[in-house]
Structure formats: C-alpha cells, structure tokens
C-alpha cells in the first residue's frame, strides 16, 4: 500500500488485521519495490540500504517497525541497527490515556554523523567515513552500520586488542552476567581461549569484529538446542562488547564485575568502540532507538532501545521528519 502524505498533512488508518514484523517505509520521493518468487509464493523485494546499485540508493528513506498481534497488542520501534536515514518519531497512546514516545534523531543528523565519522577516521586511521552513502547531489543520504561497511577487511582486526584485554582480565577476575531473568546472576571465567559461564551449555570463543558488529555470528550465534542460560547470556555479553564497558570499573583481584550495570553515560567511552552507535545515540533527541541488535539490554529502568508497546493500544502516531 502506498500513501502520499503532503508536508504538514495527517493521514489516519485503522488496523483491522494482525501484522507481524511489519515495516512502514517513508521517503521524500517515490520508492521502488519489487516482487520475488519463492517456494512460499510471491514475496516483497525490499530496498537494500547498503547496495549502491539499488534503485532507491540515491533517496533519503527509512522505516518504522511494528507488530500488531491477534490479541491486540501493538509493539513499535525506530531502528538504526543497519543504517541511519531520514528522521521520524513515534508516539503510542493506550486506551487509558498513557503515552510512550521515541523522538528520533535531530534534523541533519546524517550530515552530523558523517562529519563526526570523518573526525574519527583522522583520529584512528580507520575508514569510518566510507559508511556514508551519498545521493545524486553528493550529499550523504544515509549512514551504514559497521557490519555493512563496503570494505569489510579494513575493520577485520579492529576489536582484536580490546578482546585480548577482556580475555586477560577475566582470566583472573569473575565476570558476572545479570541475566535479568529466572537464571539470575551467572558467573563466567576465561580459561585458555574460551569464556565459560555456569549453567551454560556452551563456552564462548574470542569474538571477531564481524561477530561484535552483528551480535549474531560466532560465539553470539544462538541455535536450536541451546539452553536458556546461553540464550540470555548472549545479548548481555555482546551488548557489553559493542558498548565497550567490559574494561571499566577496575576491581581488586577476586571481586566480580557485573554487566549490565552501567547506564548510558558509560557507553562507548573506550577508544575502541562502536563509534557509529555512539554517534547515533548522540544525535537522538531523547537518546532512544536501536543502534545495534541488543540495544534493549539495559540496567534498571533505562531504555536505550526506544521500543514502545501496549496490550491496549489506541493510537500509534508516526511523524515523518521531526515533530515540532
């Protein structure tokens, strides 16, 4: 379904059927979609954000993700996991009048992030600026997440020294994962080349840059048969790597380091970190919005992911651009 919405205009729609893992795409100009055939029938060919030959590559676009269940629950979020593009904000109002909102990134954030990545590139010599994709006029229209860097080998060793220091630290200190679940606190130690956690059916090898950027490969890949402890340790361990918090809060030998423990003020403070994620959160008006897959791992009541949800939703308002 395509809907044209003029500047300053409002369009109302009523959801009458459940929708799972849906996307609401938006752009300044008309986007091109296609169809693909599979064993399940026809499917939607979506724009590929990192493909310079995609017919939408020159456009500034983005999407809002949402699910409307058969039971009437609505969940939605603004995702920057794969890229940062055109701004939007969301507000969910429940039938009791309570509201939840995510304000999105500030106007001009793509330009701001690209300029900052250029500064970071000069600081550490890594090709961060290549994450910026330009439109027909040469100006950046989106910023790719590091997992989609066009020259992946240039970052292949990026995390190696940091990972080595983490392995060294937790060979003589205990890493405690607060699983925030029935599994409680799980203690982990490094022995040889692997990190092992109590009650976990698998140990963890040293993650590569690709493993850390995506949180879904190598030691962070969950497969059928993995036990409950393994499935709750993965997101918390990878989040700590992405945010570079595992070398903070140096403790005397024998004391336990707990994660997640640090709030957003302590994320991305190490020189080796996900600078894309750091800059995305700096550009967000309220600091909310997934900058990587497990940005919903937070201590206490913090909410870096910016997901909204209600079992009794009344209205989901999506504002394209920034709400004044």
Automatic annotation (TrEMBL):
InterPro entries: Glyco_hydro_64, Glyco_hydro_64_fam, Glyco_hydro_64_N_2, Osmotin/thaumatin-like_sf
Top-level taxon of the source organism: Eukaryota
Gene3D superfamilies: Beta-1,3-glucanase, C-terminal domain (3.30.920.50), Thaumatin (2.60.110.10)
Domain called GH64: residue spans: 1-318
Pfam families: Glyco_hydro_64 (PF16483)
PROSITE patterns the UniProt entry points to: GH64 (PS52006)
Name this protein carries in UniProt: Glucan endo-1,3-beta-glucosidase-like protein
Native source organism of the sequence: Hapsidospora chrysogenum (strain ATCC 11550 / CBS 779.69 / DSM 880 / IAM 14645 / JCM 23072 / IMI 49137)
Lineage: Eukaryota, Fungi, Dikarya, Ascomycota, Pezizomycotina
